[in-house]
C-alpha cells in the first residue's frame, strides 16, 4: 500500500516478559506523543518462563485437547495472534501450541471413564409395566366372567363377552408393544400374520391334530383357551426380561475393552434371560391350566411358543427383523404342514407322508406337533441370537 | 461466455438461517451472466422448516439433501428372511470384499494420524493420505454402483475393522486406549460424515453437468465437489471464510465424546481437509488468518488467492466523501456489546484521554448481545462510566451531562449506521478477540481515522491507514487517541487513505470481479468435457474448448454443422471461421437466392 507507514505497534511495560527500564525507551519516543515525565511505568518482574503462565491460564483447554491443533484453535479463539506468540519466543501460534501440548501432563487425553447414561426405558419403568399388565388383566377378567356366568348366560351373550375381552386384549397388546422395551424400530411385514396363526394353533391345534389323526375332522373341535390366558399373562415378564437384557448389555458395553470380550460377557445374560422367561411362563401356564380343567393342553407346547415369541421380538427390537420373521414363518410352516401331511396320507399310495406325524402323535400326544415346531424354531432363533445379539453394534445407543 | 457453476453449501445459502448466505446471495445476484445450480446440504430439521430465502431467476436447479436424519434407510421387508450377515443386507460377496478393503484403508489412515512417516505402519506402508484417498474414493464408487453404504457402515464389520485399526501398531496412545463404546461412537460419527457419498447427485444431469464446482466452505460442503472431480473431472474451487477444522474443534457435539473418538475425528477432518486442498484448483481464503491454517494443511501457495468478503459501500458514500470531519474531540465506538469487546479498557483509556484533553467526548453506539451475558456486561460498563466520569456542565446553572454516552442506532439522534460513524472524528476498536472486523471496515468506508487493537485480522484490514496498539493496554490506546485528536491534518490524511484502501479491497464489486476472473480462468483451463464438433480439416487435433456455443447445453438444440463445406469455385475466399460453425451469417450463400 502507498502512503506513509503509520503502524505504531508498541509493547509497553505491562507484559511480564519485558525487561528493561522505561527510561531507556523514552529517548526514542516519537515527539508528538505527549509525555508525562511524572509517570513511571510499572516494571513487573515476570517469571522466567512465560509459557507456564499461559499453560496455567488455559489449563482446561490443554488437558482436553487431543492434538496440538486443538490447542491452537482454542488459543486463537482467546485472541492470541502470531505477534503475541512472539512474546513467548515462538514463530507462530502452531509451534506455541505444540510446546503446550508436549508440556501439559496428559490428564484428559487418556480415555475418561464413561459415565453411563441410563437408557430411556429405565426412567419410564412404571409406564410400560402398567401397559404390559393390561392384556393379562383383560384376559383374566374375561375368563373369570365366563366362568362365573357359566350356566347363567346363553351362547350369544357369552360370545359377546368373549369378543369384548378379545378386543381389550388386542388393544392392550398394541399399547404395550408401541413403547417400552418391546418397541420395534422397523418391523418386517409378515410377522403379525405368523404370530396370529401360531396363537390360533395353540388354541385349536391340538384338537385339530387329534381329530385328523383319528379319522377326519368331525365338525367343531375342542378349543383350549388356557394357553392363551397364560401367554397374555406372560407378556409382563417378557417386557421385563427384554428390559433386563438391554440394561445389562448396556452396562457390560460401557466396561468392555474388546468386541469378543463383550460377546463373552453378554452371552450368559442372554441365556439367563431366556431361562428366566421360560420359568415364569411355565408357572403362569400351570396356573392358567389349573383354572381351566379342560382337555389337558400340556405345558410344553405353549411354553415353547412363548419362548419363540420372546426371541423373535428380541431380535426385532435390536434391529434384526428378518431373522425373526423367518423363525416364525418356519414354525408356521411346520404347523400348517402337519394336518396336510396327515390328510395327504389318506390318498392311495401316499401313506408314507403321514408316518412322521403319526410317530410324533404316538410318542407325545397331539400336542407334540406344536412342541416340535415351536421348539425347533425357538432353538434356531436362540442360536442365531447368541451370535447376533452379542455383537456390540446391536446395542449401539444411537 | 456462459459458465454453469454448481454452488455447494453445507447449512448455508438457500436456507433462511444458513450462515454465509449473504455473500452467496450477493455472488449469485452479482454475476448474472453465469448460471448457478445449487446443491445444498441441510444441518437440522429446524433449518429445513425455516425455508429458503428468495432465489433470483438466474438459479437453475436447486437440489437439497438432509444430513441430520437419524433413521437408517427404509429396509425393504423381505419375505425370504435373509439372515443378516455381519455386513448388511445388500452386499454380495465381491462388494463385501471391496467394502472391507476400502474401510480398512480409510480407518487405518484415520487411526494412524496425519503425520506418520510412511514406514511406521504395520501391513500397509503407504502414507496415511494415500490410504485415506483410496478408501474414500473406493467407498464413493461403491455407493454410486450399489448404494446401501449407510447400513453397511453401521454394521458389525465396520466396528471390527475400527477395533483392529485402533489396536494396530503405530497408533498414538490416545487412540490405542479406545474402548467398545468409543468404537461405536466413532462408527456413528463416520457414517454421518460420509453421508454425502450416498447422495444421488453424481450423475450426468447432476454434478456431472456443471462446468465448475464452487464450494462455499471447506469440509463437508467440499466433499461432493471432490467426488465430482473424481468421477467427471469437474474443477473445484473452494472458498473459506472460516477454518472448518477450527470450527470442528470449537464446536461442542450433542453427546460428549471421549478423547479417542475426538482424536480420530480430528484426524479424519484433517486428512479430508488436506485432500480437498490437494484436489482443488483454486482455494480462496477470506483473510490471512484462514490462509495460515490452509497452508498448515498443505495447500500449495500457487492455489491460494485471498479474496476479501465484500461489503456494501454506497450507504457510507455520503459520509466518506463529505467534508464533515465529525464532532470536535469526539471518539466513537460502534459494535455489539459483549465482554470480548473490552469496553472496560476503552473506558480506562478514555479517562487518560480526558486528563490530556479535557473536552473529549466518547460516544458508544451499540446493542448488547442477546442473552444475560451481554446485558450484565452493559450494566457493568455503565456503572464504571458513571463512576469514572462525573457529569459536567458549563456553569452553575445548566443541566449537565456525561462525557460518555451509551446510545443505540435507530434512535432519533442517530437514525442509521452512517450517521453514527459521522458523529466522531476517530473510531476506536478495543477488542480482545476479533475475527474479521466489520465495524473497522465500515469506519474505513466512512473515511474516519481508526485506532484499533492488534487482534485477529485487524492489521491486515487496516494496512497502514490507521493506528494499531496492543490489546489490553489502555495507556497505549489513550496515547494514540490523544495524538489523533490533536492533529486534524493527520486525521484527514489517515481517513482518506483508509477510504481509498477500503474501496479498493473490501467492496462487493472487487469480490465479484475476483470471482468472475477465477470462474473464467478455471472454465478455460478445464479439459473439454462436452463433445465438441471435430474440426473438419483436422480431426485428430486438440479439442477446441470454446467451440460450442452456449445454446448447445440446451436440450433440443441441433448439433452445429458446417455451413460451407466447400468453397465454390470462383465464389471468393470463405474465411476459415465460417467453416464448421452454424452461422447466422446474413451473407450466406443461400440467403439471397430468392431475389437474385
UniProtKB/TrEMBL annotation, chain B:
Residues 539-548 have a biased composition (Pro residues). The keyword Transferase applies. One of its GO terms (molecular function) is glycosyltransferase activity. Pfam families: DUF3492, Glyco_trans_1_4. Keywords: Transferase. The keyword Endoplasmic reticulum does not apply. Residues 531-569 are annotated as: Disordered. Residues 4-301 form the DUF3492 domain. InterPro entries: DUF3492. It comes from the Bacteria. PANTHER family: BLL3647 PROTEIN, GLYCOSYLTRANSFERASE. This is D-inositol 3-phosphate glycosyltransferase. It comes from Streptomyces pratensis (strain ATCC 33331 / IAF-45CD).
Amino acid at each position: 500500500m502507498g502512503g506513509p507507514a503509520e503502524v505504531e505497534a508498541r509493547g509497553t511495560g505491562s507484559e511480564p516478559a519485558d525487561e528493561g527500564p522505561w527510561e531507556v525507551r523514552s529517548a526514542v519516543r516519537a515527539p508528538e506523543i505527549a509525555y508525562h515525565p511524572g509517570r513511571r511505568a510499572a516494571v513487573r518482574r515476570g517469571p522466567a518462563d512465560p509459557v507456564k503462565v499461559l499453560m496455567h491460564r488455559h489449563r482446561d483447554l490443554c488437558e482436553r485437547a487431543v492434538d496440538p491443533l486443538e490447542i491452537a484453535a482454542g488459543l486463537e479463539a482467546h485472541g492470541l495472534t502470531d505477534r503475541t506468540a512472539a512474546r513467548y519466543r515462538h514463530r507462530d501460534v502452531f509451534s506455541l501450541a505444540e510446546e503446550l501440548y508436549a508440556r501439559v501432563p496428559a490428564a484428559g487425553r487418556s480415555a475418561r471413564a464413561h459415565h453411563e447414561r441410563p437408557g430411556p426405558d429405565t426412567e419410564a419403568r412404571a409406564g410400560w409395566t402398567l401397559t404390559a399388565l393390561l392384556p393379562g388383566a383383560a384376559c383374566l377378567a374375561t375368563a373369570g366372567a365366563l366362568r362365573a356366568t357359566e350356566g347363567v348366560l346363553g351362547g350369544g351373550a357369552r360370545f359377546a363377552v368373549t369378543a369384548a375381552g378379545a378386543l381389550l386384549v388386542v388393544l392392550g397388546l398394541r399399547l404395550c408393544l408401541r413403547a417400552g422395551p418391546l418397541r420395534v424400530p422397523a418391523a418386517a411385514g409378515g410377522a403379525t400374520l405368523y404370530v396370529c396363526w401360531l396363537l390360533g394353533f395353540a388354541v385349536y391345534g391340538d384338537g385339530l391334530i387329534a381329530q385328523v389323526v383319528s379319522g377326519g375332522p368331525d365338525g367343531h373341535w375342542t378349543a383350549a383357551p388356557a394357553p392363551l390366558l397364560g401367554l397374555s399373562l406372560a407378556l409382563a415378564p417378557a417386557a421385563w426380561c427384554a428390559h433386563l437384557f438391554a440394561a445389562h448389555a448396556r452396562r457390560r458395553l460401557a466396561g468392555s475393552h474388546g468386541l469378543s470380550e463383550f460377546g463373552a460377557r453378554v452371552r450368559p445374560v442372554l441365556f439367563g434371560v431366556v431361562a428366566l422367561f421360560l420359568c415364569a411362563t411355565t408357572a403362569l401356564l400351570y396356573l392358567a391350566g389349573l383354572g381351566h380343567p379342560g382337555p389337558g393342553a400340556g405345558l410344553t407346547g405353549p411354553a415353547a411358543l412363548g419362548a419363540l415369541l420372546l426371541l423373535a421380538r428380541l431380535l426385532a427390537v435390536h434391529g434384526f427383523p428378518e431373522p425373526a420373521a423367518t423363525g416364525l414363518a418356519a414354525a408356521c410352516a411346520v404347523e400348517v404342514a402337519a394336518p396336510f401331511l396327515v390328510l395327504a396320507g389318506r390318498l392311495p399310495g401316499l401313506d408314507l407322508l403321514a408316518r412322521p406325524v403319526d410317530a410324533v402323535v404316538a410318542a407325545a400326544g397331539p400336542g407334540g406337533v406344536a412342541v416340535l415346531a415351536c421348539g425347533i424354531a425357538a432353538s434356531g432363533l436362540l442360536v442365531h441370537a447368541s451370535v447376533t445379539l452379542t455383537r456390540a453394534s446391536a446395542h449401539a445407543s444411537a | 461466455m456462459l459458465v454453469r457453476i454448481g454452488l455447494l453449501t453445507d447449512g448455508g445459502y438457500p436456507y433462511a438461517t444458513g450462515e454465509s448466505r449473504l455473500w452467496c446471495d450477493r455472488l449469485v445476484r452479482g454475476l448474472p451472466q453465469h448460471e448457478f445450480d445449487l446443491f445444498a446440504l441441510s444441518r437440522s430439521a429446524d433449518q429445513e422448516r425455516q425455508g429458503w430465502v428468495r432465489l433470483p431467476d438466474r438459479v437453475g436447479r436447486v437440489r437439497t439433501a438432509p444430513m441430520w436424519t437419524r433413521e437408517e434407510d427404509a429396509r425393504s421387508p423381505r419375505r425370504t428372511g435373509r439372515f443378516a450377515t455381519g455386513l448388511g443386507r445388500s452386499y454380495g460377496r465381491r462388494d463385501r470384499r471391496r467394502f472391507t478393503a476400502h474401510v480398512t484403508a480409510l480407518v487405518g489412515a484415520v487411526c494412524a494420524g496425519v503425520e506418520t512417516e510412511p514406514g511406521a505402519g504395520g501391513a500397509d506402508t503407504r502414507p496415511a493420505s494415500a490410504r485415506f484417498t483410496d478408501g474414500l474414493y473406493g467407498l464413493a464408487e461403491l455407493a454410486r454402483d450399489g448404494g446401501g453404504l449407510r447400513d453397511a457402515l453401521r454394521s458389525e464389520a465396520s466396528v471390527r475393522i475400527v477395533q483392529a485399526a485402533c489396536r494396530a501398531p503405530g497408533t498414538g496412545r490416545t487412540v490405542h486406549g479406545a474402548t467398545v463404546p468409543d468404537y461405536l461412537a466413532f462408527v456413528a460419527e463416520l457414517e454421518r460424515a460420509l453421508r454425502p457419498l450416498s447422495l444421488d447427485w453424481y450423475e450426468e444431469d447432476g454434478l456431472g453437468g456443471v462446468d465448475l464446482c464452487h464450494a462455499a466452505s471447506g469440509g463437508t460442503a467440499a466433499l461432493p465437489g471432490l467426488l465430482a472431480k473424481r468421477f467427471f473431472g469437474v474443477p473445484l474451487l473452494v472458498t473459506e471464510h472460516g477454518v472448518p477444522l477450527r470450527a470442528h474443534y470449537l464446536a461442542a457435539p450433542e453427546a460428549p465424546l471421549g478423547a479417542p473418538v475426538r482424536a480420530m475425528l480430528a484426524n479424519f477432518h484433517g486428512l479430508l481437509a488436506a485432500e480437498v486442498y490437494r484436489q482443488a484448483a483454486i482455494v480462496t481464503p477470506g483473510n490471512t488468518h484462514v490462509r495460515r491454517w490452509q497452508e498448515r494443511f498443505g495447500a500449495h501457495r500457487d492455489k491460494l488467492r485471498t479474496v476479501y468478503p465484500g461489503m456494501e459501500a454506497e450507504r457510507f458514500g455520503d459520509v466518506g466523501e463529505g467534508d464533515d470531519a465529525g464532532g470536535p474531540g469526539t471518539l466513537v465506538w460502534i459494535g455489539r456489546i459483549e465482554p470480548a469487546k473490552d469496553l472496560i479498557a476503552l473506558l480506562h483509556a478514555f479517562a487518560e484521554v480526558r486528563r490530556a484533553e479535557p473536552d473529549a467526548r466518547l460516544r458508544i453506539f451499540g446493542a448488547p448481545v442477546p442473552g444475560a451475558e451481554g446485558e450484565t456486561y452493559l450494566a457493568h460498563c455503565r456503572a464504571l462510566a458513571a463512576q469514572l466520569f462525573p457529569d459536567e456542565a458549563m456553569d452553575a446553572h445548566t443541566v449537565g451531562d456525561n462525557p460518555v454516552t451509551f446510545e443505540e442506532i435507530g434512535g432519533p439522534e442517530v437514525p442509521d449506521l452512517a450517521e453514527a460513524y459521522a458523529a466522531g472524528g476517530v473510531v476506536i476498536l478495543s477488542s480482545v478477540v476479533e475475527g474479521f472486523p466489520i465495524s473497522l471496515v465500515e469506519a474505513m468506508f466512512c473515511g474516519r481515522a481508526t485506532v484499533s487493537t492488534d487482534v485477529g485480522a485487524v492489521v491486515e484490514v487496516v494496512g497502514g491507514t490507521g493506528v494499531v496498539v496492543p490489546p489490553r493496554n489502555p495507556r497505549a490506546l489513550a496515547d494514540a487517541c490523544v495524538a489523533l485528536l490533536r492533529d486534524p491534518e493527520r486525521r484527514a490524511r489517515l481517513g482518506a487513505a483508509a477510504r481509498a484502501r477500503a474501496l479498493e479491497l473490501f467492496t462487493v464489486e472487487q469480490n465479484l470481479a475476483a470471482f468472475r476472473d477465477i470462474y473464467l480462468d478455471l472454465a478455460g483451463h478445464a479439459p473439454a468435457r462436452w463433445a465438441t464438433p471435430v474440426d473438419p480439416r483436422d480431426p485428430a487435433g486438440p479439442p477446441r474448448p470454446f467451440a460450442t456455443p452456449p445454446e448447445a447445453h440446451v436440450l433440443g438444440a441441433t448439433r452445429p454443422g458446417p455451413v460451407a463445406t466447400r468453397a465454390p469455385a470462383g465464389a471468393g475466399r470463405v474465411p476459415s471461421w465460417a467453416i464448421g460453425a452454424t452461422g447466422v451469417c446474413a451473407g450466406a450463400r443461400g440467403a439471397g437466392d430468392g431475389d437474385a
